[in-house]
Amino acid sequence: MAYSEIYKKIGFQRELNRLQKQAYFGYDREIKMLRNLGVEDENLILEVGSGPGFYTKILLDNFNNSEVVSLDNDETLLNFALKMLNKDYSNRVSFMNDDITNSSMPNDYFDIVVARFVFQHLQDPIKALKEIYRILKPGGKVIIIDVDSELWGLTYPKNNLINQLNSSLSKFQSSLNGNREIGRSLLTLMKLLKFKNLNIEAVINHSDILGKENFKYNLDKELEKDPRFGNILKEYNDFFNLNYSSIMILKLFFYGEKPI
Ligand SMILES: C[S@@+](CC[C@H](N)C(=O)[O-])C[C@H]1O[C@@H](n2cnc3c(N)ncnc32)[C@H](O)[C@@H]1O
Q1: What is the reported pTM?
Q2: Whose CA is nearest to atom 10 of ligand 1?
Q3: Distance 119 CA to ligand 1 centre (A)
């Protein structure tokens, strides 16, 4: 599935806004987690599925002297990232229009591969993992940040709304050949493909820490009319108007190393 199908359906600017918000939302905890998992300043990092480059900027700003290769198979998003980052980071970032299931990257090359919210979009995650294994240096580390639908959002008070939203988002993802239940399979696939020192961690966005308003959907008239999401999103937004409601959203970090 071409990622452009998503922004053709929901609108390019809306998708940019969504990705920007999603990149910065709780990013400081993600950076701490990446450091805990061994990402260091001065690493050579491949960022798989870098999209419009908001997370690329976060990596460049937080890992001093690191060099980031941003790989994506969507030329429009890559060009957006290039325009945004090339001026200030030209000596530390480069852009590759490439497919992670069949890339032109050299063998044994990168210290770190980071893939954030990409695997849920892939039709063939095994092929992508094999490719990542090939291009990592021996001893190199892969960190996949992704979700699993059933672990994604827990509301207080418990309510069925989140299940409906999850189910609609999962159906939408499947209709585009993706898989929003990717989380449960990733570590096992990594084990089967011979990654070592496997680990899994979670970073949690909680509405009582990050502010309820930030968890609401940006609903405009057009989205409100959408038969798949309109009503659910409106109800979801209303949920945050209760003074005692809250939500926690789990971002899962899957870790493995290529053996030396
Ligand atoms: C949800 S965006 C994530 C962007 C960024 N990683 C972030 O966290 O903000 C997913 C990105 O993965 C890219 N992508 C999907 N399939 C890909 C593939 N086979 N090879 C390379 N990139 C891919 C899409 O083009 C899109 O830019």
Answers
A1: 0.94
A2: 118
A3: 8
